[in-house]
Amino acid sequence: MSNSSTRDSLTIAGKAYHSRLIVGTGKYKDFAETQAAVEASGAEIITVAIRRMNIGQDPKQPSLLDVLPMSKYTLLPNTAGCYTADEAVRTLRLARELLDGHKLVKLEVLGDPHTLFPNMPETLKAAETLVKEGFDVMVYCADDPIQAKMLEDIGCCAVMPLASLIGSGMGILNPWNLRLIIDQAKVPVLVDAGVGTASDAAIALELGCDGVLMNSAIAHAQNPVLMAGAMQKAVQAGREAFLAGRMPKKLYSAIPSSPTDGLIGK
Questions:
Q1: Could you tell me which residues are beta bridge partners of residue 41?
Q2: Under 8 Å between Cβ of 160 and 192
Q3: What is the mean pLDDT of each run of 10 residues along the chain (266 residues)?
Q4: Parallel, antiparallel, or unpaired for β 10-12 and 15-17?
Q5: Cβ 81 vs Cβ 111: under 8 Å
Q6: What is the pLDDT of residue 259?
Q7: Distance of alpha carbon 245 from alpha carbon 266, whole angstroms
Q8: 21: helix, coil or strand?
Q9: Catalytic residue IDs
């Protein structure tokens, strides 16, 4: 990576990270595969579904923190599986207790079990409560510029619009809305949900997203560890392409890639 991109870091809640890829820890066949994929991804922030993953709630069962320790990774507890603001708030209060006052969390309040689309009224309600209680809230939301701005105004430290439905692998279906959100935001914007392969991640970063969060795209790949490495490279390439600035698109205007002046024989 070039010197300029090496200095280009992602800052969330006052902390700088070199990696712009955040990965989930669910859906793998075992903790060994989870650990190998996370390491291959180069991610520094890992998200954990508090209602589904043991991080100390059950001392008799293996803990994810045994293979992915907090001394090495920033843990991002999330509220996957919550359908009301009250459920989400209770879940993150529990996470804070389990993790000795940990403040950085990912809020998601789902609308229905079929699409897993966010319930935005409940999301806004939960975000307001959590910010008032001192949490640093990264929030999964619809790709709606108005509601994304509302979440920022509440005090969320990052907004995370979906690219397409959770687990769908459909990629970025509405780049125009993402650009509207990016252009107005004063906090990091990260694509959350819908990434299927490396090119989707690259496109998100090329659009100007500050990062991308994924789980299914890696965990459901035929070779999760290899896909995790591919995602790391895609995020880096997409960010560097954004910083470099692409050439303008010119409809019906072919321009030779080599100069035509001074050709031999002319």
A1: none
A2: yes
A3: 60 96 92 94 93 72 82 93 96 90 94 92 97 97 96 97 90 93 96 94 96 95 97 97 91 66 59
A4: antiparallel
A5: no
A6: 61
A7: 34
A8: strand
A9: 106
Here the tokens at position 45 are 């922030």
pLDDT at 266: 57
Rg of the Cα atoms in the chain: 20
Hey, what are 107's tokens? 């809020």
- Strands, sheet with 211-214, edge to edge from the N-terminal-most edge strand: 158-161, 136-141, 104-107, 74-78, 45-49, 21-24, 211-214, 190-192
Question: Tokens 């998601």 belong to which residue?
Answer: 108
Residues 6+ apart with CB under 8 A from 85: 109, 122, 123, 125, 126, 129
The pLDDT score that the predictor gives to residue 235 is 97
Pull the structure tokens for residue 257.
Answer: 């890639």
Q: What is the separation, in whole angstroms, between the first and last Cα of the chain? A: 41
* Cβ pair 78, 55 in contact under 8 A: no
Distance CA 160, CA 140 (A): 5
Count Cα atoms within 13 angstroms, Cβ side, for 46.
25
Question: Residues 145-164, buried b or exposed e (16+ Cβ, 10 A)?
Answer: bebbbbbbebebbbbbbbbb
Q: What is the per-residue pLDDT for 6?
A: 47
Sheet strands (E) in 58-120? 74-78, 104-107
Which CA distances in Å does 226 have to 17, 31, 133? Answer: 23, 16, 40
pTM value is 0.88
- The distance from CA 242 to its chain's CA centroid, rounded to whole angstroms, is 17
- CA pair distance 207, 39, nearest whole angstrom: 26
Output the six-digit token pair for 195. 């990434």
Beta bridge partners of 104: 136
